[in-house]
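Before the break, one more example. Copy the sequence into your notebook; we will annotate it together after we see the structure.
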Amino acid sequence: MNNLTTLIKRLEAATSRLEDMVPAMTDQSAVSNGVASLPESGLTAPGADARGGAASPSQQTLAPLPPAIDDFDALINGDVKTFVNMSEEIGGLVAEQSAAVLRAFAAERKFLIVTTKAKKPDIQSPVYMEVLKDLQATMGVVNDIREANRASPLFKHLSTVSEGIAVLIWVANETKPAETITEMLRGAEYWGNRVIQEYKE
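Here is what the structure looks like once it is written out:
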């Protein structure tokens, strides 16, 4: 998680550029780099290229991604992909929840792409809420899987992930997102420790 905190600090500068989202929302080409797929991950969405948009010859001339987005891609292609792969080995609800986690990270990636191309709107505006909608929805799915399966023997696992996914909402914190993440991780650590203890016994 230290890697995530370090990354968040590097991405704080990007949040200050969350302006003028109306053009970005109306011009889909402006955010074509931000859809839920990642380079070299093997997790590209159907019908999308490695940058996240629909594949086309014109995309061969896309400008390089900002360093912060490259770092975020490295996080997803590394730790997140490892988590998803291991969850798929367990299968069932764990695999289902991990797929929702991946979609949440992809939604956050899209949001971050927008921040590099747009000006900051009023955080109470419908435009701002629209841009956050996909992230909030996918995070909600992660939590819904937990809440719908309280009787599952894997409830502690589901709770660990459900509590941890809240860190992605750091993008809505305009002051100290890294500190917010540290606070939010406490719930995940609590459930994670319970999982560790269970499998020690």
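Helices lie at 2-15, 21-26, 67-90, 92-115, 126-147, 155-164, 177-200. Residues 14-55 have pLDDT under 50 and may be disordered. Try to locate both features in your own notes.
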